[in-house]
Design brief:
Helices cover 8% and strands 46% of the residues. By secondary structure, it is mainly beta. The strands form three sheets. The protein has a five-stranded antiparallel beta sheet with strand order 1-9-6-11-4, with no helix packed on it.
């Protein structure tokens, strides 16, 4: 987990994100919002795409699975999580007012997605 720098004063908070400090150059950015409280999204992995998930608002739980074990990471505003290739992940949106920003290392390509968890498990276990 990566905590973004925060500059706070009476006008609010500013969280800069310096692309030169990322492990990749972003090619695509999107955000997810208006997700009902408790809903789970994601539930896939990527062959090539790396992502930086940034909590803009709310409380977002990022659950990662590497084919052997799972880990859970709670993101509050200003927290981010680097998601490498071949990691199954999902996000649970805990407040109903959450906003998740995703910076991606590749352009969108459906062929880069692994959408079946059993296929992911077989793929990652065969690589060991």
């Amino acid at each position: 987990m990566i905590r973004l720098n925060r500059f706070e004063d009476n006008r609010g908070n500013l969280y800069p994100l310096d692309f030169s400090k990322l492990p990749f150059t972003p090619k695509r950015i999107f955000y997810v919002c208006n997700v009902p409280m408790g809903e789970e999204r994601g539930q896939h992995a990527h062959y090539k795409t790396q992502q930086l998930l940034v909590c803009i608002q709310g409380l977002i739980e990022v659950i990662t699975f590497d084919g052997r074990g799972s880990k859970s990471h709670f993101l509050k505003p200003g927290d981010s999580y680097f998601l490498d290739t071949l990691i199954w992940d999902s996000q649970i949106f805990h407040t109903g007012k959450d906003i998740l920003l995703s910076l991606c290392s590749t352009e969108y390509d459906i062929k880069d997605y692994i959408l079946n968890k059993n296929e992911f498990i077989n793929l990652t276990n065969n690589d060991r």
